[in-house]
Write a structure and sequence with these properties.
The N and C termini lie far apart (38 Å). The longest helix has 26 residues, at 134-159. The protein has eight helices and no strands. It is an all-alpha fold and 165 residues long. It has helices spanning 3-21, 29-39, 46-61, 67-83, 88-96, 103-114, 122-126, 134-159. The model is unreliable at 156-165 (pLDDT under 50).
């Protein structure tokens, strides 16, 4: 993407943030959905994506937001996680506060943990393998599979030469 295109993209995100921050904006969660849609094609730099994810995580953890806003923020984080590797320090506060989320919201948190591909996230996800809701147990298993898959494949790539001479 050229510089002008990137500036237009980040301007659209900034406009959505401004509208979200305005308490007079109806259905503020739509602004977060708009940002989520802009994350999907993976056109932002990793640094800009991390800024967006960090802010979404703070919104999801805010006591001042209604459920629709929290869900939109968590959905945006998961959308970013399908295209970017999410640093564990951005996602861990969500996992640490997991008890505050109902099962549908907790599923987003576990998906985000898997998108970190960080071995340190394994114990955070493992604690949900015995959750009373089957969907949460499945999400925990999926998160662990994602994390372990990355490390298995890195080991395989490192162990086998790229070319056989």
């Amino acid at each position: 993407m050229d510089t002008d295109g990137y500036e237009r993209l980040t301007a659209r995100i900034e406009k959505a943030w401004e509208e979200f921050d305005d308490p007079a904006t109806p259905r503020r969660f739509f602004r977060l959905d708009e940002i989520s849609d802009l994350l999907e094609p993976a056109l932002l730099t990793q640094e800009d994506t991390e800024r967006v994810v960090g802010r979404m995580a703070r919104i999801a953890l805010s006591d001042d937001e209604d459920r629709d806003v929290v869900e939109a923020a968590l959905h945006a984080i998961c959308t970013a996680g399908t295209r970017y590797t999410l640093p564990l320090p951005l996602v861990q506060p969500l996992a640490d506060a997991a008890d505050r989320f109902d099962p549908p919201l907790l599923a987003y948190v576990l998906s985000a943990l898997g998108s970190t591909y960080d071995k340190a996230a394994i114990p955070l996800a493992k604690r949900f393998l015995d959750h009373p809701h089957p969907e949460i147990r499945r999400e925990a298993e999926d998160a662990l599979t994602e994390i372990r898959w990355r490390y298995r494949h890195e080991l395989i790539r490192g162990a086998v030469p790229d070319t056989l001479d």
